[in-house]
Design goal:
Layout: H1 2-28, E1 47-54, E2 58-65, E3 73-76, E4 84-87, E5 100-106
Antiparallel strand pairs: 1-2, 2-5, 3-4
């Protein structure tokens, strides 16, 4: 009887160990830090920020030209000291009145807000 008891105990400990490893592996594979949607400060009345999502290494801004004129460029940034220029004059394209566009705003791994 003690031999069967020892086998059952070892089997239960083995199963418990497998479950512990599986649980630890599952927890370890989840992202350690989830970034929420950043707060947006819009300093112009002619571009409306319709949405912000996070892609690979960049925030994707969905912007709408709310002016009655076409825009040939604008600047966005991830903090007050950064600047990402979008210049449509190079491609001879304009952001027409009412048109919606998406802009990738690069972020570094050290930035956690925009």
């Amino acid at each position: 009887m003690p031999k069967n008891y020892a086998r059952r105990l070892l089997f239960k400990l083995f199963i418990l160990g497998l479950l512990s490893v599986a649980l630890a592996f599952g927890i370890g594979s989840t992202p350690k830090r989830q970034i929420s949607t950043p707060r947006v400060i819009n300093s112009t009345r002619y571009l409306e920020v319709m949405g912000v999502t996070q892609g690979d290494g960049a925030y994707v801004l969905t912007l709408k030209n709310t002016s009655d004129k076409a825009a040939n460029g604008f600047s966005v940034g991830t903090n007050p000291y950064s600047r990402h220029d979008v210049d449509y004059t190079i491609s001879e394209r304009l952001l027409k009145a009412g048109e919606v566009t998406e802009v990738d705003v690069p972020i570094s791994s050290q930035q956690n807000s925009a």
